[in-house]
């Protein structure tokens, strides 16, 4: 016997069964539509009841049946339909949790007991990049493993050769709070955006005297701040996340919107592209506490995780692309596997009470670097779930952490106006 | 007195907690192992950091400085009174600050003299509140009167606590402002309990109203359509094929194990990490056309490793060309390249690829299953970036199972793998 989402109704299992609706709940002239996919024959069979009756026949083989009550006339409150839909949604969601739980025969940290502990890390800061006049909000490495771009609350975007500490380019934006910046795969351009609701692409010139700001070109247009941006594997496409609750894919040359991604119910704060040669997916996280995986081609949300208890500030893929991590205002970082379709680890400590703003993996995926609002960076053992090291040094919140493309260094950006490059 | 050991022991217990405490490990020393130890430095750093956070939030403060930090020297500190604790959700407005600064100028004490930045703030506030300044002045006078009546020592303490409160909410320029909020979050008023009361009892009509704190709109109730979408989404998710955790865990462990030697945070790079030695040899080697053994070894981990390394791609292509079977890889590369073009160039590029690889009589004809072929034929009529997606997927699978494994087994690949070894032998 299965439970009908509507109170007072019962569906009995079997090839053909009768469902009787409690007369007290539903006035007689209601049209009832029953829809559902049978687990065995995948047939959706809508059945309607003759007007005036309050019973109907349902042919089904499987317990999973959705009942939707349609309003045939105005008397019935809209709220009741919404309520039943909500209930249905809730039931399905709970069922999903159950299904996910069924395959949890062991926890990651238990299996990881057989792995050797990570040797004590001694990570030191090797470079301090000074030059921004206000909080550094974001940064991104260039593929050449030594250059990086950073953006600040003062409207400036700087391109550095972090190895020599040389400032190679300075771009001034007409807005404050440049929250997003990214380096193009070719190394010939950078993208940046923020409170101006736009994301612009700036080609970098080899000629130092040329004013790069003048060549800035608006590509993305959102209806609220741009929180994150990333080039795809080409200089020609830009992916953005925004406070307007959407993500979008843009053609850089024309500024055309190629695809938009709807599904978040609040600001989207971060996105990351899957590191795959063949894949077309990316993950996003936002203030609705959800981490969503998207198909870039169709615009569909293909997977979703809602384990966090506060805003998700950052999402980042595990190097193999089969998993990803998130950082949240709930002071935890979490790890999700896409094949198991669930959260597989939580990185937290009683002593960590400030929100985590940013995460990134070391090259092998064994270490997770996480920046926090208490000015520290915690280094987590991804498999065992324990903290390996704490990095002190910044004098204000850490806004972003990124491992260099060949994994040799970690760059951290902070509200203390500096960027630090560290390594073991 | 008899309570002290209990407090300490509580703290010790927390420090020793396996999950949340200080990491205790066995340290390998020369010829021996030192069991069950923790680093004193770690404890000191943690303690100092905690102290700094407490100071920054104003829970205690140095008595002779405006800068809220904890220093390891002879500096004296005082605790803040709970009335001013951050947990009371203070958001004092400029009218309160004006009263405070004004009050300070009325008291003839050297220790209460305004600092430069405070004098500047006062001047600015006087201009901003020019019309209500008389009232502010009166309030300041009244406050000063109340203060005068207090016991001398009590006054000293309260004055310093009040000043520390303002050091948190109107920090010295250049100091960390712990009350600063990320602009992405500030516009949504998360904390409805923020105290709107005045520090000095000013009435509402006199105070300014901060424009940044508009109450957040009530969370939108989902519409029927949205709920339907949600339901469809959950149904699709339920149909998903999931892997067992044990399998997934083994896969994650395996991946990490395979790549640990390539992870500079866990295995020192050869010859050195440029960020440590300032020697960029490692990067120069990467850029050169001669791939090192470690890099070649990686190509055997999976086809993606070959495809994402430009030198790997080159070698793979060279091998296939020697076998006169390079059309699959060339098609795959061409489609990847297509997806990187600006949208304007896509239609013509699609035609070119079609002609070269799929059209009847194509010079580099590839073999795709009939389903993909039919779909592609349709797509090409209205060409988009994903016109060849199905064909590309089919070809990728083919390459993975056929050409790639042949490449890894080929003598060309094996030679590259041995190359470094040969070189080192010749050093003698």
From TrEMBL, chain A:
May interact with RGS9; this interaction stabilizes both proteins and increases RGS9 GTPase-activating protein (GAP) activity, hence accelerating the deactivation of D(2) dopamine receptor-mediated signaling. InterPro entries: G-protein_beta_1-5 (IPR016346), WD40/YVTN_repeat-like_dom_sf (IPR015943), WD40_G-protein_beta-like (IPR001632), WD40_PAC1 (IPR020472), WD40_repeat_CS (IPR019775), WD40_repeat_dom_sf (IPR036322), WD40_rpt (IPR001680). This is Guanine nucleotide-binding protein subunit beta-5-like. PROSITE patterns: WD_REPEATS_1, WD_REPEATS_2, WD_REPEATS_REGION. Keywords: Coiled coil, Repeat, Transducer, WD repeat. It holds the Pfam family WD40_Gbeta. Belongs to the WD repeat G protein beta family. It comes from Nothobranchius furzeri (Turquoise killifish). WD repeats lie at residues 129-161, 219-260, 261-304, 305-346, 358-390, 391-424. One of its GO terms (biological process) is signal transduction. Residues 82-109 form a coiled coil.
Automatic annotation (TrEMBL), chain B:
GO terms for biological process: G protein-coupled receptor signaling pathway; intracellular signal transduction; negative regulation of signal transduction; regulation of G protein-coupled receptor signaling pathway. The keyword Glycoprotein does not apply. Signal peptide: none annotated. GO terms for cellular component: cytoplasm; neuron projection; plasma membrane. The keyword Electron transport does not apply. Residues 302-417 form the RGS domain. The lineage of its organism: Eukaryota, Metazoa, Chordata, Craniata, Vertebrata. InterPro entries: DEP_dom, G-protein_gamma-like_dom, GGL_sf, RGS, RGS6/7/9/11, RGS6/7/9/11_DHEX_sf, RGS_DHEX, RGS_sf. Keywords: Signal transduction inhibitor. GO terms for molecular function: GTPase activator activity. Pfam families: G-gamma, RGS, RGS_DHEX. This is Regulator of G protein signaling 7. Gene3D superfamilies: 1.10.1240.60, Regulator of G-protein Signalling 4, domain 2 (1.10.167.10), Transducin (heterotrimeric G protein), gamma chain (4.10.260.10), Winged helix-like DNA-binding domain superfamily/Winged helix DNA-binding domain (1.10.10.10).
């Amino acid at each position: 016997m299965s439970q009908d989402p509507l109170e007072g109704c019962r569906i009995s299992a079997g090839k053909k069964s009768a469902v009787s609706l409690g007369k007290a709940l539903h006035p007689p002239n209601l049209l009832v539509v029953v829809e559902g996919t049978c687990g065995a024959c995948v047939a959706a069979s809508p059945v309607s009841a003759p007007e005036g009756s309050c019973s109907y026949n349902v042919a089904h083989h499987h317990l999973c049946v959705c009942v939707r009550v349609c309003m045939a006339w105005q008397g019935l409150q809209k709220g009741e339909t919404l309520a039943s839909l909500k209930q249905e949604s809730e039931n399905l969601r709970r069922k999903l949790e159950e299904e996910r739980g069924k395959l949890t025969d062991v926890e990651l940290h238990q299996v990881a007991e057989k792995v050797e502990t990570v040797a004590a890390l001694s990570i030191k800061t090797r470079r301090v990049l000074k030059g921004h006049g206000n909080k550094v909000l974001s940064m991104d490495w260039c593929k050449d493993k030594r250059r990086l771009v950073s953006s600040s609350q003062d409207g400036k975007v700087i391109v550095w050769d972090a190895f020599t500490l040389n400032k190679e380019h300075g771009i001034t934006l007409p807005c404050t709070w440049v929250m997003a910046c990214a380096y193009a795969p070719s190394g010939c351009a950078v993208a940046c955006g923020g409170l101006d609701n736009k994301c612009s692409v700036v080609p970098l010139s080899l000629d130092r005297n040329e004013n790069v700001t003048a060549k800035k070109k608006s590509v993305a247009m959102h209806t609220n701040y741009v929180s994150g941006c990333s080039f795809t594997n080409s200089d020609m496409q830009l992916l953005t996340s925004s406070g307007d609750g959407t993500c979008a894919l843009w053609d850089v040359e024309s500024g055309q919107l190629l695809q938009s991604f709807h599904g978040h119910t609040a600001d989207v704060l971060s996105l990351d592209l899957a590191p795959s040669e063949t894949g077309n997916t990316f993950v996003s996280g936002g203030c609705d506490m959800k981490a969503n995986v998207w198909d870039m081609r169709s615009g569909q949300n293909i997977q979703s995780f809602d384990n966090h208890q506060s805003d998700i500030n950052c999402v980042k893929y595990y190097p193999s692309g089969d998993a990803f991590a998130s950082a949240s205002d709930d002071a935890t970082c979490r790890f999700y596997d896409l094949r198991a379709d669930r959260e597989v680890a939580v990185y937290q400590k009683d002593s960590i009470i400030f929100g985590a703003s940013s995460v990134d993996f070391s090259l092998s995926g064994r270490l997770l670097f996480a920046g926090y609002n208490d000015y520290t960076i915690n280094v987590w053992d991804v498999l065992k779930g324990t903290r390996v090291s704490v990095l002190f040094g910044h004098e204000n919140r850490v806004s972003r952490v990124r491992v260099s493309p060949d994994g040799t260094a970690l760059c951290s950006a902070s509200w203390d106006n500096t960027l630090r490059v560290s390594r073991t | 007195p008899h309570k002290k050991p209990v407090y300490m022991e509580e703290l010790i217990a927390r420090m020793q907690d396996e999950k949340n405490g200080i990491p205790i490990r066995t340290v390998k020393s020369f010829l021996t192992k030192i069991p069950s130890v923790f680093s004193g430095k770690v404890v000191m750093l943690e303690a100092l950091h905690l102290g700094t956070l407490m100071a920054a939030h104003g829970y205690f403060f140095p008595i002779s400085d405006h800068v809220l930090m904890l220093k390891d020297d002879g500096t004296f500190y005082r605790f803040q009174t709970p009335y001013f604790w951050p947990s009371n959700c203070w958001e004092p407005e400029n009218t309160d600050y004006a009263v405070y600064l004004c009050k300070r100028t009325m008291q003839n004490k050297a220790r209460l003299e305004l600092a430069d930045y405070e004098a500047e703030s006062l001047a600015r506030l006087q201009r901003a509140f020019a019309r209500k300044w008389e009232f502010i002045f009166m309030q300041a006078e009244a406050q000063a009167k109340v203060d005068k009546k207090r016991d001398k020592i009590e006054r000293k303490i309260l004055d310093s606590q009040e000043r520390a409160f303002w050091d948190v909410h109107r920090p010295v320029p250049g100091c960390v402002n712990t009350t600063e909020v990320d602009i992405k979050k500030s516009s949504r008023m998360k904390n409805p309990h923020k105290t709107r009361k005045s520090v000095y009892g000013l009435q509402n009509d006199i105070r300014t109203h901060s424009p940044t704190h508009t109450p957040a709109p009530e969370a939108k109730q989902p519409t029927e359509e949205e709920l339907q979408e949600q339901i469809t989404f959950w149904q699709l998710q339920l149909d998903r094929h999931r892997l067992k955790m044990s399998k997934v865990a083994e896969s994650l462990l395996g991946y990490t194990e395979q790549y640990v030697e390539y992870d500079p945070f866990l295995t020192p790079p050869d010859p050195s990490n440029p960020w440590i030695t300032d020697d960029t040899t490692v990067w120069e080697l990467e850029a050169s056309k001669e791939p090192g053994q470690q890099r070649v070894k990686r190509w055997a981990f999976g086809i993606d490793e070959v495809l994402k390394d430009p030198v790997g791609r080159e070698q793979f292509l060279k091998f296939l060309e020697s076998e006169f079977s390079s059309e699959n890889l060339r098609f795959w590369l061409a489609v990847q390249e297509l997806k990187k073009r600006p949208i304007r160039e896509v239609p013509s590029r699609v035609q070119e690829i079609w002609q070269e690889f799929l059209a009847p009589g194509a010079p580099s004809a590839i073999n795709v299953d009939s389903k993909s072929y039919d779909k592609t034929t349709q797509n090409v009529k209205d060409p988009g970036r994903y016109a060849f997606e199905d064909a590309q997927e089919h070809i990728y699978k083919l390459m993975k199972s056929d050409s790639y494994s042949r490449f890894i087994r080929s003598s060309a690949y094996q030679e590259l793998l041995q190359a470094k070894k040969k070189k080192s032998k010749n050093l003698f």
